[in-house]
Design a protein that fits this description.
The complex is a heterodimer of chains A (255) and B (209).
Chain A (H helix, E strand, L loop, with lengths): L19 H5 L7 E4 L9 H10 L4 E4 L14 H6 L3 E6 L14 H5 L4 E4 L2 H13 L3 E4 L13 E4 L2 E7 L3 E8 L1 E2 L5 E2 L8 H7 E8 L23 E4 L18
Parallel strand pairs in A: 1-2, 1-8, 2-3, 3-4, 8-11, 11-12
Antiparallel strand pairs in A: 5-7, 6-7, 9-10
Helix pairs in contact in A: 5-6
Chain B lengths: L4 H9 L7 E4 L18 E4 L3 E7 L17 E9 L2 H9 L5 E5 L2 E3 L4 E2 L14 H7 L3 E4 L11 E2 L12 E5 L3 E5 L4 E6 L5 H6 L5 E2 L1
Parallel strand pairs in B: 1-2, 1-5, 5-8, 6-9, 8-10, 12-13
Antiparallel strand pairs in B: 2-3, 3-4, 6-7, 10-11, 11-12
The chains are: A alpha/beta (255), B alpha/beta (209).
Chain lengths: 255, 209
């Protein structure tokens, strides 16, 4: 896999790849992969589908969720689990919040076919941020006094009990952005940003599916860049449907 | 008589003060974004980094790049801003939320509550609940007073794994508005036609006026 650019050049490396299969080529068995997205915005639907075709196994998958119980179902980590590619997930949801809903992932977890580490969402974000920022661990008040803190190190700092959490480094981040330039600079739109900048910082290799045609370097004003191109190795433009997968309106469940 | 979910949302929204930053959780609390607040201005924050969103978008006009915590397509109000997840939770952990409103399975007299794992389940759904519960200035809950089989959800202590210890400020149910006292719950308001005896019969710990 490509390493981070280190020579200071902005466009000499051609980061644009031809298709989604080329984008996920070489992701090895046993890789730790972070997937952007919160609900639909920012989920790299096309790269997930390509990873399913690519077939890497024993993956550790980091994401907010393995995929919801919503209809229609879009490519999600649950599909990689169904495909026998996943050893472990690290998520803030391993079951649905409404007891009447069932995540596609949950039965596999209940049967012990896949491991899961459930992490509060803000702790998940901060563990990724810490990994990208060279901070090995931190203390947080989140989850103190709960089942998640049982048997783990806490300290009292400034009169408040806080829990030790470790950084969460990533091999590969799969992301979806609205715009990218050839230097790899990324701009997200609306709530598509969510975890993506943190995952890009935490990862050794960053692969991005991009909604708009990839722009020449400099076309995104430096002030508007959300994730700098030095972090990004591969870009692939999403073709229009049906070749590219785009968000769709969810069916609203009856309450 | 009892309150509808919308009436529960309206009652909790009456507690909001002008200038508050308000985080709304998944489920029932999302109704609060539709409650008119008169001359009070509050800013709604969603855990996915959206600051200053408005009501759910009418069908056909959705921006599929923009959702609230519950994954609903929402609108942005003038002055809105968007940050990434670490900054969004820095706002939460940093104490900027004047209140978080969440759904729950159980609320306890000691201020604990449970909203992430049901009985017998191996998995759960935490989302941002533990971060919000630990660090918001106030925690308001919205839940039905009893389960579908009639068991009380307001208890001396939680029976389910808790989300946070001793943080609940107010609990709105279909029967009224309550505050945990340590020993039980104090009535702050009753839904029209609901009596104190009715609340006591539906609650597993002392209820005081």
């Amino acid at each position: 896999m490509a390493e981070r650019d280190g020579d200071g050049s902005m466009t000499r490396r051609n980061k644009v790849v031809a298709d989604f299969d080329a984008a996920v080529a070489g992701i090895p068995d046993g890789a730790t992969i972070a997937f952007g997205g919160f609900a639909q915005p920012g989920v790299p639907f096309n790269l997930i589908a390509a990873l399913g075709r690519q077939g890497a196994k024993r993956l550790t998958c980091i994401a907010n969720t393995t995929g919801g119980a919503h209809k229609p179902r879009m490519p999600d980590i649950g599909m990689l689990v169904e495909n026998g590619q996943v050893a472990k997930v690290v998520c803030s949801f391993t079951a649905a919040t409404r007891a009447s809903d069932m995540l596609p992932f949950t039965p596999y977890y209940e049967r012990g076919e896949v491991e899961a580490e459930i992490v509060p969402q803000g702790t998940l974000a901060e563990r990724l941020r810490a990994a990208g920022a060279g901070i090995p661990a931190f203390y947080t008040p989140t989850a103190v006094g709960t089942e998640l803190a049982e048997g783990r190190e806490t300290r009292v700092i400034n009169g408040r009990e806080v829990l030790l959490e470790y950084a969460l480094p990533v091999d590969v981040a799969l992301l979806r952005a609205h715009q990218a330039d050839e230097a790899g600079n990324l701009r997200f739109r609306r709530s598509q940003r969510n975890f993506a900048p943190l995952m890009a910082m935490a990862a050794k290799t960053v692969i991005v599916e991009v909604e708009e045609p990839i722009l020449p370097a400099g076309a995104i004003d430096p002030d508007d860049v959300h994730t700098p191109g030095i972090l990004v190795q591969r870009l692939v433009a999403i073709p229009p449907p049906p070749h590219g997968i785009w968000p769709v309106r969810r069916e609203v469940p009856a309450r | 008589m009892s309150w509808t979910r919308m009436q529960m949302a309206e009652r909790l929204a009456r507690e909001f003060e002008d200038g508050w930053i308000v985080n709304l959780g998944v489920g029932m609390p999302t109704l609060i974004a539709d409650v008119p607040l008169g001359d009070r201005e509050v800013v709604f924050h969603s855990e996915n980094g959206v600051i200053g969103y408005g009501p759910v978008t009418p069908p056909g006009q959705e921006d599929l790049h923009l959702v609230n915590a519950g994954g609903q397509n929402v609108t942005l109000l003038p002055g809105a801003a968007i940050v990434h997840h670490a900054d969004s939770f820095a706002l939460i952990r940093g104490g900027r939320m004047d209140v978080t409103v969440m759904g729950a399975y159980e609320a306890a007299a000691n201020g604990d509550f449970a909203n992430w794992k049901v009985k017998g389940a191996k998995g759960g759904g935490i989302g941002g609940a533990m971060d919000l519960a630990a660090s918001a200035k106030r925690v308001f809950l919205m839940l039905e007073h009893r389960t579908r089989d009639g068991s009380p959800r307001l208890l001396p202590r939680c029976t389910l794994p808790i989300t946070a210890r001793g943080v609940v400020t107010l609990v709105a149910t279909d029967l009224g508005l309550f505050a945990p006292t340590g020993e039980g719950f104090a009535v702050r308001d009753l839904a029209p036609g609901v009596t104190l005896d009715e609340v006591r019969a539906a609650t597993a710990c002392p209820v005081t006026e």
